[in-house]
Amino acid sequence: QVQLQESGPGLVKPSQTLSLTCTVSGASINSVDYYWSWIRQHPGKGLEWIGYISNSGNTYYNASLESRVIISTDTSKNQFSLKLSSMTAADSAMYYCARYRVTILGVVFFDHWGQGILVTVSS
Amino acid sequence: EIVLTQSPGTLSLSPGERATLSCRASQTVDGTYLAWYQQKPGQAPRLLIFGATTRATGIPERFSGSGSGTDFTLTISRLEPEDFAVYYCQHYDNSPFFGPGTKVDTK
User: Fold this and answer.
1) Which residues of chain A have pLDDT under 50?
2) How is B52-86 classified by DSSP, letter by letter?
3) Chain B nearest-CA residue for A62
């Protein structure tokens, strides 16, 4: 059974860098059919894709966040991570990690999600 | 830039009723990339439908997806108490993006 679990600080000071880790079990982040993703959701709002990383290490980011985002993997631990710099109150949100399935036919979707971690930016 | 619009914003229905949720794209899109998710309060989204019409593993048959071009629909044939939630459509256009969601609540 595939499971994803986010970990990291729930409170970050303005201007600091957020660092979150997603630990994957039941699947390998080296799998060729999946991208490993971060998505956030502001309180009471919709879903915003942050970015993802492929099994080969290629990264793709939301253009609106690209200058501040780094997604990386640690294959030895079957984990992937998010770093979001220059945090402001506007970055306070629930952060989810998710697996993005890419099929041979080009069908794409997020098929497994972590439970989410609430991040608040405050001094 | 493609934008997804979901309607209605809120759908108030009773258990046993049929729910019809709309997801409209600002231009013609490939249904291959169209997915639907359900999100209950305090939970992560759950994949319901991918490729516009294919139910994900374990999703009950009362959930069905249809549509093409610019108009896509998620139908819940008979609402169960556990179906009251927010539903998002999602597409891909060089990157994934989501619609604003439709909340299905109890009348």
Assistant:
1) none
2) TTEEPTT--TTEEEEEEEEEEEEEESS--GGG-SE
3) B95
